[in-house]
Each structure stands twice: as structure tokens, then as C-alpha cells.
């Protein structure tokens, strides 16, 4: 049974960058992976693309033929994919049991109320794939209460629309410290704790929010999110291996890969325990690494990288010298055997 991630999220959230980084990470840990581009507007992928929707339909063709704007053309292209699903089905057959990353378009309509993308996902699921929807959001949204509450609503709507195992991810967490201090610790935002504490900050953000009309609306929105109790967030710094590993562990638990992947269907309990035993980052460690002590930790990692590189260079030079000495000995032995070396005279 193959596994897959459905990477969704608004424009600029880092979907293609994530697919590139996760593909590299999966390859490094020995998990065979492929990336499928489902964005008809993405004509320059940074990752090796195993299957590209642009070979079926392109944004430019739809805009010209149907006289549509960019957003309408993307919706039309996804409808074309839904109606020509056999093309995608045949392409996925060629990938075998590869772990697949689906890079999806950024138009929020596609994963909030338009049906085509969801229908495509359901058809993929019927092919036997174990899917996890990954909703990416730029962590900049934490810097303004209004952005954060909007993100909560968007994430909740996407979870209800997709109706799949789902993780919300705050990307670019390594940039968060540069935006200024937050009123609360990071765990307040990732765990979506009591949102009533956020409302005073929301009113301070914009004086119009103090109007009784908006105050009632804000309270209703906060209560809606809290009543569902579904939204929470993982964090990601895509260039940090430990951060990527922590997120992958959460994805594997959500999709069932942690309990036996496609290449490990007969894994023993001990093998599963080994996969689960790798220590990821807690939210407190994320707070310390990327917010409280970012500059200090960056410098420490830089020095460690330099030390490792120096050790590797020294080791490489030592192996080179050892190899040269071995070659010299071989040449001397070879010369003696062929009579080209020193002639030994026996005394009588």
C-alpha cells in the first residue's frame, strides 16, 4: 500500500520548497519518493518532477482557449484533471510503491469549497494510497492577531473540506524571530489555547475592532474555532534536518506509515519501535532554537559544521597519504618480483 502527502496551502506558504526539501530528506534516509506537480501554473519546479499536470493541461492554454483569468483557469484545469483522471492513474502506476508528494495549487478555493481537488484526492485514495493532507501556512501569520484568526478559519475549513488525515504546518519558523516579539509563547499558537486572551491584542491592532459590532463578530469566530477543537499546528524550518524529521514523524503517525511502510509491510515490532524512537523537537525546543536563542544556536551550529568539515578534510588527507604509501610499497614489491629492483647476493 503506497503512501502520499497532499501539500496544500495559500500562495507563498512554501509548498514547492517543502516538496523539494522533503524529497531530498526522504531520499537521504532511504525512502524512495517521487513528486507529482498538480499546479498547472508551476512551470519551473525546483524538484525532479515524476509527473506533471502541465503535460495534460497548462494554465496558458486554458486562459487563451477559455478566455479566463489566472484563478479561473486554475479551477478549470483541476476540473479537467478530475474528468481525465485516467491520465493521473496511469502515471501513478508507473511510480509503483514510491512515497508520493503531491504539490498542489495555491488557490484557497480549491481546498475550501471547490469540489474538484477533493474529488481527485478521493479517487487517489481509492487506488490504495494512504493519504495525509498537509496544509502549509507562513508563520508570519503569528505576528498579527487578525492574520492568526484568519489562518485558524482557513485551516478549519480546509480540514472539513478535505475530510482526510490532516496536519496544519507553520512554515518558515526560522524567520519568526526577525518579525519582533510575540505576545505569547509559541505553544499558545500551535496548540490554539484559550483564544479569549488574544482578543485584547486584536482590538489594539486596529481601533475599528473596538466597535461593539466587530467585538461580537470576533467573539463568535473565536467560539466557532474552539467549539470544533480540531485545529493545531506543527512547525517547520525546511533547511533544518531535525525540524524536517520531527514533522515527518508526525506525518507518518497520521498516515499510518509509522506502523509499517510500503517497503516494510512485514516489519517487526522492534523495527517499528526503532523508527518511532528517534527523538524529534518539542515545541519548547522549537521556541528556544528559533526564537529565544536563534543567533546563538546559529553560531554554534556554524562552528560545529566547520569542525566536522575540518575533521573530514583531515581524514580524507590521511586516507590519501595512506593510499600513496601503500602504492609505493606495491611498486617496490612489484619491482622486486620482476627483477627490476635491488639484486640480492647471497654470501657463501
Radius of gyration: 27 Å
Helix content: 40-55%
- Count of alpha/pi helices: 14
Please give the number of β-strands: 7
Low-confidence stretches: 265-274, 335-348
* Structural class computed from helices and strand pairing: alpha/beta
SSE ordering: EHEEHHHEHHEHEHHHEHHHH
Shape: globular
Q: Order of strands across the biggest sheet?
A: 3-2-4-1-5-6-7
**Biggest beta sheet summary:** 7 strands, parallel
**For the terminal residues, how far apart are their CA atoms?**
81 Å
The overall pLDDT, averaged over residues, is: 87
Strand content: 5-15%
Structural summary, described in words:
Strands 3-2-4-1-5-6-7 form a seven-stranded parallel sheet, sandwiched between helices. It has helices spanning about 15-30, 60-65, 70-85, 85-95, 110, 115-125, 145-160, 185-190, 200-205, 210-230, 240-255, 270-275, 285-290, 295-335, and strands at about 5-10, 35, 50, 100-105, 130-140, 165-170, 235. It has about 350 residues and is of the alpha/beta class.
Question: Concise description?
Answer:
The protein contains 14 helices and 7 strands.
Task: List its traits.
7 strands; disordered C terminus; 348 residues; single chain; alpha/beta; globular
List the helices and strands and how they pair.
Blueprint lengths: L2 E6 L6 H14 L4 E5 L11 E4 L6 H8 L3 H14 L1 H9 L5 E5 L5 H4 L3 H11 L3 E9 L6 H18 L3 E6 L14 H5 L8 H7 L6 H17 L5 E2 L5 H15 L13 H8 L6 H10 L1 H44 L11
Parallel strand pairs: 1-4, 1-5, 2-3, 2-4, 5-6, 6-7
Amino acid at each position: 500500500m503506497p503512501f502520499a502527502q497532499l501539500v496544500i496551502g495559500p500562495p507563498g506558504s512554501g509548498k514547492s520548497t517543502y516538496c523539494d526539501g522533503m524529497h531530498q530528506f526522504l531520499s537521504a534516509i532511504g525512502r524512495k519518493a517521487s513528486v507529482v506537480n498538480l499546479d498547472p501554473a508551476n512551470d519551473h519546479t525546483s524538484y525532479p518532477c515524476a509527473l506533471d499536470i502541465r503535460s495534460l493541461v497548462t494554465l496558458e492554454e486554458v486562459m487563451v482557449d477559455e478566455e479566463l483569468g489566472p484563478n479561473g483557469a486554475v479551477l478549470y484545469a483541476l476540473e479537467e484533471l478530475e474528468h481525465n483522471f485516467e491520465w493521473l492513474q496511469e502515471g501513478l502506476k508507473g511510480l509503483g510503491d514510491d512515497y508520493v508528494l503531491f504539490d498542489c495549487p495555491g488557490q484557497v478555493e480549491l481546498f475550501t469549497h471547490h469540489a474538484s481537488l477533493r474529488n481527485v484526492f478521493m479517487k487517489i485514495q481509492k487506488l490504495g494510497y494512504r493519504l495525509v493532507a498537509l496544509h502549509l501556512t507562513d508563520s508570519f501569520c503569528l505576528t498579527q492577531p487578525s492574520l492568526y484568526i484568519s489562518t485558524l478559519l482557513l485551516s478549519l475549513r480546509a480540514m472539513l473540506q478535505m475530510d482526510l488525515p490532516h496536519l496544519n504546518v507553520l512554515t518558515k519558523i526560522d524567520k519568526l524571530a526577525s518579525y519582533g516579539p510575540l505576545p505569547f509563547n509559541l505553544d499558545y499558537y500551535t496548540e490554539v489555547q484559550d483564544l479569549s486572551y488574544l482578543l485584547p491584542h486584536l482590538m489594539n491592532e486596529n481601533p475599528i475592532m473596538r466597535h461593539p459590532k466587530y467585538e461580537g463578530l470576533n467573539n463568535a469566530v473565536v467560539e466557532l474555532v474552539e467549539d470544533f477543537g480540531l485545529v493545531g499546528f506543527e512547525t517547520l524550518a525546511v533547511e533544518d534536518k531535525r525540524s524536517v524529521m520531527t514533522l515527518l514523524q508526525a506525518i507518518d503517525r497520521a498516515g499510518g506509515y509509522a506502523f509499517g511502510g510500503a517497503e516494510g509491510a512485514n516489519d517487526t515490532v522492534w523495527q517499528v519501535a526503532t523508527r518511532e524512537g528517534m527523538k524529534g523537537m518539542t515545541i519548547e525546543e522549537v521556541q528556544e532554537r528559533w526564537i529565544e536563542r536563534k543567533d546563538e544556536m546559529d553560531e554554534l551550529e556554524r562552528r560545529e559544521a566547520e569542525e566536522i568539515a575540518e575533521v573530514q578534510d583531515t581524514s580524507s588527507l590521511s586516507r590519501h597519504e595512506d593510499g600513496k604509501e601503500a602504492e609505493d610499497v606495491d611498486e617496490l614489491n612489484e619491482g622486486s618480483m620482476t627483477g627490476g629492483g635491488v639484486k640480492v647476493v647471497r654470501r657463501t
